[in-house]
Specification:
Shape of chain B: globular
Helix content of chain B: 40-55%
Oligomer: heterotrimer
Distance between the termini of chain B: 71 Å
Mean pLDDT of chain A: 63
Bound molecules: calcium ion
Low-confidence stretches of chain A: 1-38, 132-164
Largest interface: B-C, 71 and 71 residues
Number of strands of chain B: 10
Number of helices of chain B: 22
Strand content of chain A: under 5%
Helix content of chain A: 40-55%
Strand order of the largest sheet of chain B: 2-3
Number of helices of chain A: 7
Shape of chain A: globular
Radius of gyration of chain A: 17 Å
Order of helices and strands of chain A: HHHHHHH
Strand content of chain B: 5-15%
Number of strands of chain A: 0
Largest sheet of chain A: none
Distance between the termini of chain A: 34 Å
Chain lengths: ~180, ~450, ~450
Amino acid sequence: MPQVPTGAGPVLAAAAVGLAVGLGAFTFGYAKGASYLSTDPAVCANCHIMGEHFTAWQRSSHRQAAACADCHMPHDVVGKYVAKASNGFWHSLAFTTGNFPDPLQIKPHNRAITEHACRHCHGDVVAAIDPADGPADFAIRSAFAGGAAAERPQIHDGPIDAGWSDSCIRCHTYVGHMVR
Amino acid sequence: TNIFERKQEARNPFYRVVELTDSTIDPAIWGKNFPQQYDDYRKTVDMVHTRYGGSEGTPRNPTAIDPRRVVAQSRLEEDPRLMRMWAGYAFARDFREERGHAYMLDDQVFTGRQQAAPQPGACLHCHASMYVAYKRAGAGDLIAGFERINPMPYAEAKVLAGNHPVACIDCHDPATMELRVTRPGFLEGIRTLKASQGVRAYDVNRDASRQEMRTYVCGQCHVEYYFKGKEKRLTYPWDRGLKVDSILSHYEASGHTDWIHERSGAPVLKAQHPEFEMYSQGVHARSGVACADCHMPYERRGALKISDHHVRSPLLNINQACQTCHKISEAELRDRVYLIQDRTFEMRNIAIDALLDLVTGIQRARAADSTAPVVAKAQRYQRAAQFFADFVEAENSMGFHADQEAVRILGNSINFSRLGQAVLRGERVPDAPLEGASGSAHQLPRAARPAEPIDRR
Amino acid sequence: TNIFERKQEARNPFYRVVELTDSTIDPAIWGKNFPQQYDDYRKTVDMVHTRYGGSEGTPRNPTAIDPRRVVAQSRLEEDPRLMRMWAGYAFARDFREERGHAYMLDDQVFTGRQQAAPQPGACLHCHASMYVAYKRAGAGDLIAGFERINPMPYAEAKVLAGNHPVACIDCHDPATMELRVTRPGFLEGIRTLKASQGVRAYDVNRDASRQEMRTYVCGQCHVEYYFKGKEKRLTYPWDRGLKVDSILSHYEASGHTDWIHERSGAPVLKAQHPEFEMYSQGVHARSGVACADCHMPYERRGALKISDHHVRSPLLNINQACQTCHKISEAELRDRVYLIQDRTFEMRNIAIDALLDLVTGIQRARAADSTAPVVAKAQRYQRAAQFFADFVEAENSMGFHADQEAVRILGNSINFSRLGQAVLRGERVPDAPLEGASGSAHQLPRAARPAEPIDRR
Ligand SMILES: [Ca+2]
Ligand SMILES: [Ca+2]
């Protein structure tokens, strides 16, 4: 089974709330934080910081196929709300303090979420090329070796630092939003 | 196919029609389980050329010793200078553009180089499906079989090797279909390399990531090599690194020489297809792009994406090979490759001219007085210049795999050749830096600066 | 700042505090309307160095003729070979690492080169805010003013120029803030270049795309140039193209020479900051990446994205300069640049060594017999070798702007220098290819092949 570190989310969030609750709450409300829990791209775009990606997404091959949340939210129900809460909170906080890298840098756990999203929709198509140590359920080894998980370590150097080296966006960098 | 079938196919992409064991050599049998990969695999018989790559089918009249009706174009006819560059070595007799995997065994058996000189069994390491043959020859022990076959006369070894070019079993584990390295040359070569980087007891099949394996299976053969000692042990000269400078210094230390140049009498080296080494110096390697990404790109087949087993020039398949990562037109991508290759080709030609000027010079000097110390000194320059020039000439991407590095190597080669000529004219010139030191003594104080920028306001 | 402000800013990007006219030179006044850009613009006084770029503040004792308390490090001290390379030319007296725009005027006024030789008003074209000065001197006609100021003695022209380094008005239209080219040198240079490509009557301010303008405003000054004839008309030698080979052939045709080399007597050329020309050969230019994308990247200022007017080395600002396009770590990006620069630096050093060997050779040969025909022939080789080596030495990215091309140029330079030495030794060597032909006669039949792959099965 692939390991996707979303677990840290709520803990940190909780801790940080204690310190920054006033500020955080203010932003969260003002920036229509509540609607953050919906899946309407406009919600994300509601933050001008997200604007570029929104525009880029509208030009992407997925504009008809997938909205922000489809790629950036885990597809299992629990993880979904954990991620929304943590991202929602952290983004709100970051947005308010203005303290974050620009251009934005996706965080490893969020990168991993998108990698899962790909499989969620394309699992069938990539069944043949996506091995068992990736998230897809239908890998070659499951067909022949009863799904024995591979022991291979993963490279984290190179341009892609997804949770495993079988990253989709290693090649399909532009599917969500063509920034370059 | 209707949705129901697609689902079936998807849940279990491959139907196990036959049992594959660790001694199933014949790709046709594997092809029963994986018909699409097998179909592509067989397409490597195609001969299509690009500006510098692919291959050009040339008809010939079959003879008793060489029954081939079509061969790839002769590189010696394309560039006769190569015959003088390799004077006295089998390559001056027959050297052709390489072509698809389907031909690897025949082309080795029938090359004119076989008549020119007796070849050892070690040759087969990279031209036949050797995994099972090594296992059998070693009574189950791969390395033992390797050691037994290396020194055999080629014809004898060929009998053990059988009749298959590289086959499924040479890159895949029949049980899991996972990639695996089956070639002792690479198993040992990569271990030495990693050791030199401080990694102990590296086992490629245990320690490499999947993405690295997508390069290493090719690195089994597309590398510089030599036969060590009378055991003819196939060796990859990587104990000091993969750069040409490190490899030359390995040969210096080990005192290895391929042959004595017929015209100049210099103890020279022949570089051979260092694709893996050159690629490793390039920006694609740094970016984690593997050989298979470009030479075996994914293709959509029915409901599935699979790897295109028609291994070939990516320029014949730009859409799949390049455009997923580079969202620009095929024409523009081709032009970028050709621009890189044309620059490399220009420098390659200058380097070969310079090298032959030196060869002629040494030849004259020897005629006058073969014992003159300048001759020996100039011959060392030839050794360095020739290996550097050949390293790019023999590498098969005409510089694409590492564009700046390829031209850096040629620039050094030109300098070595011209300095060798200066030696002959009795000028005061330092000895050839065969231990791989840079060609210039100059070091800018800057070079000593820390990598991190410093604020000095 | 908080979201309230951001929403405010988002609604109106800037307040028009003052009216800007086509003769408002002082950036402080423009700064009233655009305080953020003005703040950044003033930061170009910072002196921070990277491995090969930025600049290193070096304290000095102010004198009457040169009141500067801090200057950039001396390149002549860093690499004394440069003094022999430029022997007899003002550059051998004083040549420093370039630094931020804020210093351009002072550094030109006080450089030791001013004492070494009288300089013309044409110098100011790229070191001061000249737009208004040219207009005034030409009574409203930019070109007329340009022609009047070019031949003036520097001191006289300086009075007309005023005291501002490049200012807002030199790149912006005060009414629309759109980019515009204000420099006659570039207006004319780019027109000649386009004409050579079959584009007639090219008007950069009318015909260039916005993205092109983001490069052309820099190309106004970061280019190779010379002063033509006694009118000292500032000229960009682009009528045959931007490659070093084309530029050298331009100088051959026009018979231009910068100075006679003190030691060798060769009629040589000085290349100067050909950033635009070199960049044009690189993959970033091919990909439509502009100077401003890397040297003035967008930065978030509240709700706005503005262009960072602190023009500097992108290595001091990798996140904004590179990571928009390259989603890899800053450390890895820096390492890639340094790898490219280290390779270039290695070849640059070899090329300079080779060039100085040739200079010494010619010097000796002249001492023996200055009329010997070999001397003249060798001097032509020096002319070619020196221009090629200097083209990379003078370019300020140490090869990054076009990594393979930079090393190709150096490889050719090395060959020219070494062939020049062969000439001196009376060997049969063709004349130096100053008309920009390739260094090798060899053409592979392949090269003649069509770009499109052909199936020959
Ligand atoms: Ca080929
Ligand atoms: Ca600088």
